[in-house]
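F.,

This is the one I mentioned.
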């Protein structure tokens, strides 16, 4: 009778201590690794500060005003943040908002068309400007700073020149009595009442952009491309990332945000001043930097940029509620920029030290 074969020796258990793939990251390390951590801390500090020094700051109507101010900036700050994560800038973003509004207004008025025709023409032209910036960047040698500075100057001149040529003044004609104005205003400049408090529709647009941008960054292949391009073009291209298409898409994203902001500007007041928007591009960049985006690219988040915009809203309106001189606003914004940059730098160092 044959003896049964001995059972095979059990395989040694995997050494989880030596396999980094099986190591779990602690919640603290994950928290320190979030780019928006510094801005959230700053936002809490600003909120507490103005809650103490301004008696009316915590009123529901005041908070709605703060959210409105944050949303008008945040609609642009979110796509600008994605562009910065991709390693580029857009100095034409501020005047592009005005360009978008001017095109809608003047096209509708001159063609005696339904204002929605002007809105759609504005969308096409605004996106075309984004494509122009992206193509010029990817097909030529100058950095984005120079290219978009050139676009900024061209748009500034065109806004003023065409407005005076067509309207005879520096502002557009009123389109409030034209067909489609009411429905367009409902989409871009209406007010939603919740619990007796009025909230502007721009807050909804802002939140929607935050959700979409965060989903793109964290849940899609395009998000990986954006981080890769910002971290290093050559390395990204070597692993098959479509660098040119990614950057063109990012500039189109900024243009889309400019279109939304421009339509809000137009349908809030039904006329547009051709000189508006100059200088706002720097505020968009400041909001993104406060939110944790690196100037060098490859790091940041849409949520952080949104928090940076919220800080902007709290500071700009908190100064008013505290009855301070509004001339100090830029000073406080500069202080917030420096403090947020230092705090973000410290957070990143701590995150790297705990890895």
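My design for it:
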């Amino acid at each position: 009778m044959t003896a049964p074969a001995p059972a095979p020796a059990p395989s040694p258990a995997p050494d989880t201590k030596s396999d980094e793939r099986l190591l779990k990251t602690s919640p603290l390390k994950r928290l320190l690794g979030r780019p928006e951590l510094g801005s959230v801390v700053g936002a809490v500090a600003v909120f507490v500060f103005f809650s103490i020094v301004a008696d009316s700051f915590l009123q529901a109507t005041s908070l709605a005003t703060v959210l409105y101010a944050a949303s008008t900036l945040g609609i642009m700050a979110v796509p600008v943040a994605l562009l910065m994560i991709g390693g580029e800038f857009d100095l034409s973003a501020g005047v592009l908002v005005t360009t978008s509004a001017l095109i809608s207004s003047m096209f509708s008025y001159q063609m005696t068309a339904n204002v929605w025709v002007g809105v759609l023409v504005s969308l096409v032209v605004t996106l075309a400007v984004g494509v122009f910036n992206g193509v010029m960047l990817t097909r030529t040698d100058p950095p984005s700073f120079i290219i978009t500075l050139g676009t900024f100057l061209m748009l500034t001149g065109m806004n003023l020149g065409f407005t005076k040529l067509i309207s005879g003044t520096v502002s557009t004609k009123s389109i409030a009595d034209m067909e489609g104005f009411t429905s367009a205003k409902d989409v871009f400049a209406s007010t939603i009442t919740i619990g007796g408090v009025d909230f502007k529709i721009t807050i909804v647009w802002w939140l929607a952009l935050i959700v979409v941008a965060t989903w793109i960054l964290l849940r899609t292949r395009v998000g990986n491309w954006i981080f890769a391009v910002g971290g290093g073009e050559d390395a990204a291209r070597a692993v098959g990332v479509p660098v040119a298409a990614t950057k063109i898409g990012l500039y189109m994203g900024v243009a889309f945000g400019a279109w939304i902001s421009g339509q809000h500007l137009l349908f809030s007041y039904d006329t547009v001043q051709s000189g508006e928007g100059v200088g706002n591009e720097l505020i968009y960049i400041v909001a993104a930097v406060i939110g944790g985006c690196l100037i060098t690219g490859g790091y940041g988040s849409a949520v952080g940029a949104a928090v940076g915009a919220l800080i902007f809203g709290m500071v700009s309106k908190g100064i008013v509620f505290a009855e301070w001189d509004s001339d100090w606003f830029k000073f406080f914004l500069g202080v917030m920029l420096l403090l947020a940059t230092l705090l973000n730098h410290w957070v990143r160092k701590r995150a790297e030290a705990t890895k």
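Residues 91 and 282 are 7 Å apart (CA to CA).

Talk soon.
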